[in-house]
Amino acid sequence: MIPVTRPISRIGARLIQLITFIGALGLLFRDTFAVTPRMVFVKRGRRLAWSNLWFQLYRVGVKSIGVVGLVTFCIGAILALQIGPILDDYGVASQLPGVIGIAMFRELGPLIGAIVLTGFAGASIAAELGTMAVGEELKALRSHAISPVRFLVVPRVLATIIMTACLATLSNAMGVLGGMFTANITQGMDYGVYLNATFESAKALDFVTGIIKAAVFGMMIGGLACFYGMSVRGGAEGVGNATTKTVVISIVSLIMVDLTFTFVFYTLDL
Amino acid sequence: MPDETTAPSALPADADAEPIIRCINVTKQFGSQKVLHDLTLNVKRGERLVMLGGSGAGKSTLLNLMAAETRATSGQVIVNGRNICSMSDAELDKHRTTMGVLFQSGALFQSMTLAENVALPIREHTDLVDRTIDTIVKMKLELVGLREHADKKPAEISGGMKKRAGLARALALDPQIIFYDEPSAGLDPVSVTEVDQLMIGLNETLGVTTVVITHEMTSAFRIAHRLVLLDQGKFVAAGSPDEMKNSDDPLVHQFVHGLTAGPLTDRRDDCDYLTDLLNPQR
Fold this sequence. Notes:
heterodimer, A: 270 residues, B: 282 residues, 22% strand
């Protein structure tokens, strides 16, 4: 190859790679949503799917409660420690609960919850499906005419959507609690006053927009983890690569999608 | 079960009828690499066919084509009178329920017990109530001698037991054909014999057509009604175990007797080592 054209060909190859990735991921989401109604409306589909979904809800969500709760409690406390003195300097210390409440409800609750879940559940789903791919379990499903998308992807994506939304609610509460305890210790703010101020500032719309974001984040985490997991080739190394890619690409995508959402909500004045 | 020393039994009486599998001028290509070249093969109903060949000869690709795992680039694969290459995905799914595949590793679902593994295809493809499914599962596990281990998970059993459990799952929907992908890989000699006897027993008692890939020559001769040898994506020989054992063809002779000198190794040595070393582009 002529050296001058090499960079162009590299850029082209990367572009093709990116388009292929987006296309393949899109097809996975299309298949996922196309077969989901079978889980609800078809008797045979229901029989396999529901027990699987309950297990995934437990594995994705219930097991993450402790970690997500602890992390977001600390985030709330850190915010109170960092912002409290500044607001105090301006004589508006009473605004602290509102600032923390809105930040948690709109932004940090869903995002931090989703990031923790990426490391906790996304990596685990990718490693699990990757190991299944290496162990020929996906081939075995296809040979029995059982769709891996319906049997494996749908329960995991639904579980991450539902549990990311639930964990965002928990994150919001824990963040507010973290801020409340810290404000009480550092500024002597009464618990009742803090909570009242929080709910006067943070409205239902703040909460709803946060939950919408969380559900989309959940879909991304579940979809990317399943996509990378099922694409594994080449044994243990492939499983490791899939897990790393899931975590890295999920976190980057979450932040980019969060930025897009925030921009859209800001533009629409929501 | 047949004695392990007995010669393969004769084909069943209806074996002269229409072949259950017909591969007609099948070619399979991955990118620019042609893996199968214009192959034609018939498998009779109730036959035990063993496919032999070195690594990369195209055995697994051919098995995948017959098992509807992948589609041929050109040619026809006719199973039970229907060309599976022209079937829609839904038709293929329906067709797959008439076949079973035993994968090299057993491919059991690790999160499920053996009973749940066997029950899975039945739950997916039938409306039977749980009590009936449990009965069928016990029968299938009894067929492979694992009924007492029904509640164990795959991690708790040996390699040979995993293969047998995989076979029980492959039998779940009473298939007409079972494909075995290296069933003796990684097993000790006793387990190999057990699995071989099981394959022969199922073929003789249930009349299941059996297509096997193996590298174990003892096993191949014990199981096969007929053997075919693939090399570089083409059939180079076919015949009964005795015909293959006594073949004068140098390639067949080398493969069957596992000799280090012969056309297979000569071809490998043809690659010019010095040219390869000195060529910076390679």
